[in-house]
Amino acid sequence: MRRPAARLLVLTLALSLALPAIAQAHAGDAAVPVAGDAATSGIPTPEQVLAIPAGMRAMLQKQVIERSSSREQRLQALVEMIFDRHGLDLQYDANATYTVEQVWQQRRANCLAFTLMFVALAREAGIQARVQEVGQVVSWYQDQDNGVVYSVGHVNAGVEISGRYATVDLDRNVLYDRHGPQPVNRARALAHFYNNRGAERMAEGDLPGARAFFDASVAQDRAFSSVWNNLGVLDSREGDIDAAKRALDRALQLDGRQDAALTNASALYRRLGLDAQANALDRRLQSVQREDPFAQYMLGTQAERAGRLQDAIRYYRQAVRLYDSAHQFHFGLARVYFLAGQLKRADRELTRAQLLGGAPEQARYQAKLDSLARWRAQQQARR
Question: How many other CB atoms sit within 10 Å of the CB of residue 261?
Fold first, then answer.
């Protein structure tokens, strides 16, 4: 499966967008026009977003439903149908916030479109399934220019197996926040869809189209704070400062700890000359980030890339203190300890990362430990 460049993932999977990010257009990020797209025939209704086309339904019947009456076996068959070249042969596309029918046409989807499609198909096959959202995630990619992506939100699917729910996620390179995936209702899932579409339109410069989608998101769930933040960004870009202030205030009423809304509201208040209010929001943002392991981790990666190793160590240590079970955080701390020449501490953090990472990470971290041991032996031999 093709993995997206990190810079694309931030735009389409982030549920809230900060003003500086929106101000930068990304050439070539627009989704390929497809039948039923808002650019040609208006905003899809909720029923159109989730409708299973006849061809996909026939494939589901043949490759999944008729193969077994067992829910567990049907679930496995559904996964095979989606990714097998004799089935959908689905490919990841960070821009593809598609309806289920559009996924069928294009054979591409991002995490949100995949989740909506998977849940619709699973339910059609008699499998208990639900849409889930995660408040924050960190994603890792083998993209050396960007490396890590911090997104304020993420969605995936939950499926019931033998009385317990398991998670099906299109993105394997992701670390959830400590709350993990939480189930959401149909209205919130659709609010995510319309909000993502609106963010895509705004990035493309289609401001009227963006507003139409954001309004559709609000119509689904007025308590969805992320869309109010995005409306604030849109109002600001259109020069309606009063409307922008109202939208951002609403976002913060709903979620007073939302990084993007705090950042955007502070910038807006400063533009209005309301420095005292802007400073208060900045202090609140700093307070939120001090207790946010993901924010601390991202500050650590920025400091590491800038060569500020002591700052990076401080940020990574705070991330580990707040979220000790994240093996990725221990690995980041080990890396900067190594760069700073603190080899015993680097060895300790690598060992911790290996223990926490489980079987999938054992080999990678063992290779890092072996490499560190060889390097130390070489250094001692030169003395």
Answer: 31
Amino acid (one-letter) located at 245: K
Q: What is the CA radius of gyration of the chain?
A: 23
168 pairs with which residues across the strands? 157
pLDDT digit string, tens, across residues 266-325: 999 999 999 999 999 999 999 988 988 988 998 999 999 999 999 999 999 999 999 898
Of 137, 146, 230, 148, nearest in space to 191 by CA: 230
The three-state secondary structure class of 174 is strand
Q: What is the pTM (predicted TM-score) of this model? A: 0.78
Q: Is 320 exposed, middle or buried (0-12, 13-18, 19+ CB in 10 A)?
A: buried
Q: Order of strands across the sheet with 154-161?
A: 164-168, 154-161, 129-134, 182-184
Q: Using one digit for the tens of pLDDT, what is the confidence trace for 348-376?
A: 998 999 888 877 677 777 777 677 667 76
- The dihedral through the CA atoms of 18, 19, 20, 25 has a sign that is positive
Cβ atoms of residues 285 and 262 within 8 Å? yes
